[in-house]
Amino acid sequence: MSTIAENIAKLGERIREAAQASQRDFTQVGLLAVSKTKPSTAIRQAHAAGLRDFGENYLQEALGKQAELTDLPLIWHFIGPIQSNKTKAIAEHFDWVHSVDRLKIAQRLSEQRPAHLPPLNICLQVNVSGEASKSGCSPQELPALAAAVAQLPRLHLRGLMAIPEPTDDVDAQHQAFATVRTLQASLDLPTLDTLSMGMSHDLEAAIAEGATWVRIGTALFGARKAGEPENGQSAP
Ligand SMILES: *Cc1c(COP(=O)(O)O)cnc(C)c1O
Question: What's the pLDDT band for 230 if we cut at 50, 70, 90?
């Protein structure tokens, strides 16, 4: 077995155990493989080991890999910060966008989604760590943003995404993810079915609080090289 296949098997165990511990059905928790900075050969191995959903943060890098993988039936998720000049290519080349945090970007994605494709699946990124993170709308902005995005014809609003401040404090992890769950429940949009939250170090807490996508890079593909930007933010 390749290291990637072994890692996927271990992650499957972690996901199953975490789901079981909170009386959830593990099939309700999707494993989104975060392949940023990793080559298309790694994606091929992960696909051969059973994965189908891949998350990318950088548009140009993602388009390059997509072009090398057209023979595989992959589902592509954009999870990085979005500049307005990138929305057209994102609307054309992805199935999901997890990182929408303002209406202007959502409007552009809806206008630019090609007619022959199904509506683009959208998660709104919410910032539950205050000053610690610059990406994501505030909890105060969320209700109006969600109501407006839900009206856009070529988007399918699915739920929320969050990247809480990393911490080893398990109670703090739970608290942050529970905040996301509560925010979603407080929206007057009963059809939302997706919570994109939890990464390599905190997927157990995220699953306990209702995650339906865990976004996993390091625990699947190994560490990214030092100096590479994280979360799509520019390196200092
Ligand atoms: C890099 C990244 C991940 C994966 O993080 P790991 O800690 O490597 O599992 C998940 N979500 C987003 C938005 C990311 O940028």
Answer: low
Query: Ligand 1: which of 7, 160, 161, 215 to mutate, most ligand atoms within 8 Å of CB?
Result: 215
Separation of CA 28 from chain center: 15
Helices (H) then strands (E): counts for the chain: 9, 8
Say if ligand 1 is within 6 A of residue 79 CB. yes
Tens digits of per-residue pLDDT, 2-41? 799 999 999 999 999 999 999 999 999 999 999 999 999 9
φ and ψ at residue 99, rounded to 5 degrees: -120, 35
Q: Which amino acid is at 233?
A: Q
Q: What is the dihedral of CA 31, 37, 40, 42, to 10 degrees?
A: -60
Domains of the chain: 3-221 (3.20.20.10)
Specify the residue with its C-alpha closest to ligand 1, atom 11.
Answer: 215
Which ranges constitute the DSSP H helices of 69-214?
87-93, 103-112, 142-150, 170-186, 203-208
Q: Do the Cβ atoms of 167 and 173 come closer than 8 Å?
A: yes
pLDDT surpasses 90 at 132 = no
Place of tokens 């209700």: 143
Query: Cα separation of 205 and 110, whole Å?
Result: 33
Q: Residue 105: which of 80, 127, 129 has the closest Cα?
A: 80
